[in-house]
Specification:
Blueprint lengths: L2 E8 L2 H20 L3 E5 L4 H7 L5 H9 L2 E6 L14 H11 L4 E7 L12 H4 L3 E7 L11 E4 L5 E4 L6 H16 L4 E6 L5 H14 L6 E6 H10 L6 E4 L1 H14 L7 E5 L5 E5 L16 H13 L4 H16 L2 E2 L9 E2 L2 H13 L2
Helix pairs in contact: 1-10, 1-11, 1-12, 6-7, 8-9, 10-11, 11-12
The chain binds nicotinamide-adenine-dinucleotide (NAD), 3-isopropylmalic acid and manganese (II) ion (MN).
The site of nicotinamide-adenine-dinucleotide has 21 residues, from helix 4.
Length: 360
């Protein structure tokens, strides 16, 4: 039976990195007989330009039908002036919310070949393997009321609402504990329960769920300390579970531990394990069109898609091994370049991974 993947390249470097990821996916498809069929759709600025909205009905309808979604990145200065509800990023948030992709997995793994590319000392990051589990469809990103209003004194005020229901916390907790069982069985929940009531409840529910997992160790940390610990001693963490905004921020910080944000893939899963896969980085307008973008985060997102949603662990491993082989060859896009390695373009990097998958 064939499996359908909806490809949403997005904006700026989105189409550049996606072209390389699709190359690699096609090669894995052929090599392992996966029977995957690709369709293309519009999301973000590309959709706004074409259809007048950042998430067209057609894209959402296709997204509901397919087995998995592969996304590049959306947004950029071209659409800075558009109304808030039409911003490209709103399209991304809407598709996550509509599909209830509440569980965002962001694995920060250091490829040993890149120890020298991290901004931290190699001994701090060597062997790094942490998994950030970010709640993706709730919290301050979606809380109502929200907006900008004019006060009686004529001054304007911007406001958002940070809230989490028990059921929202429970389901992300279960996901984190289940994933921890397949790793080092340690979950660290990141909150700000010394200040925010929403996260007092978050911590309580984490404790409740933990009683169902006596074999998994649960600890708690405030988000400010978590940021500090991540750059001081990141290897102390196994699974970190946190809300939408804290997870957004901490995962960009964790990305730098691995050498570059261009290395960090992600999976966004619903309750049934269906998912959307995308790099953690954005559309990098500053380097778009120059062949400088690192396609590896998107290529590694393909591997996550094969593992988590398309049940093809062998093909996933082949792609991850191919990335490692290419790094062994000393090939680097500029973001992960260090002394003694060879700078290659986005396309050359994709071609090298493709060749390594074909040779697997
Ligand atoms: P960004 O992640 O696009 O870029 C931050 C920095 O990292 C830039 O210097 C960029 O050149 C570099 N970078 C990012 N990806 C890279 C890659 N693959 N290879 C090499 N270098 C890379 O973040 P930003 O500049 O804050 O945001 C730009 C736009 O992207 C904004 O519109 C933002 O809203 C959007 N964005 C989208 C997503 C998404 O689609 N998932 C995620 C984050 C930001
Ligand atoms: C990410 C991005 C998005 C987020 C933006 C573009 C809406 O930063 O995927 O990390 O904040 O979730
Ligand atoms: Mn982000």
């Amino acid at each position: 039976m064939s499996k359908k993947v909806l490809v949403l390249p997005g904006d700026y470097i989105g189409p550049e990195i996606m072209a390389e990821a699709v190359k690699v996916l096609d090669a894995a498809n052929a090599r392992f007989g996966l029977g995957i069929e690709l369709e293309y759709g519009l999301l973000g600025g590309a959709a706004l330009d074409e259809c007048g909205v950042p998430l067209p009905d057609e894209t959402l309808a296709r997204a509901r039908e397919v087995d998995a979604i592969l996304l590049g990145a959306v947004g950029g200065p071209k659409w800075d002036g558009v109304e808030r509800h039409l911003r490209p990023e709103r399209g991304l948030l809407a598709i996550r919310s509509e599909l209830q992709l509440f569980g965002n997995l962001r694995p920060a793994i250091l490829y040993p070949q890149l120890a020298g590319a991290s901004s931290l000392k190699p001994e701090i990051v060597a062997g790094l393997d942490i998994l950030i589990v970010r709640e993706l469809t709730g919290g301050i990103y979606f809380g109502e009321p929200r907006g900008i209003r004019t006060l009686e004194n004529g001054e304007r005020e911007g406001y958002n609402t940070y809230k989490y229901s028990e059921s929202e916390v429970r389901r992300i907790a279960h996901l984190a504990f289940d994933l921890a069982r397949k790793r080092d069985s340690r979950v660290c929940s990141v909150d700000k329960s010394n200040v925010l009531e929403a996260t007092v409840l978050w911590r309580e529910v984490m404790e409740e769920v933990a009683t169902e997992y006596p074999d998994v160790e649960l600890s708690h940390i405030y988000v400010d300390n978590a940021a500090m610990q991540l750059v001081m001693n990141p290897k102390q963490f196994d699974v970190m579970v946190t809300g939408n905004m804290f997870g957004d921020i901490l995962s960009d910080a964790a990305a730098m531990l691995t050498g570059s944000i261009g290395m960090l893939p992600s999976a966004s899963l619903d309750q049934a394990g269906r998912g959307m896969y995308e790099p953690c980085h954005g559309s990098a307008p500053d380097i778009a069109g120059q062949g400088k973008a690192n396609p590896l985060a998107t290529i590694l997102s393909v591997a996550m898609m094969l593992r988590y949603t398309l049940a093809s662990p062998e093909a996933a491993a082949a792609i991850e091994d191919a990335v490692s082989a290419v790094l062994d060859q000393g090939l680097r896009t500029p973001d992960i370049h260090s002394e003694g390695t060879t700078v290659v373009s986005t396309t050359e990097m994709g071609d090298a991974v493709l060749a390594a998958v074909q040779a697997a």
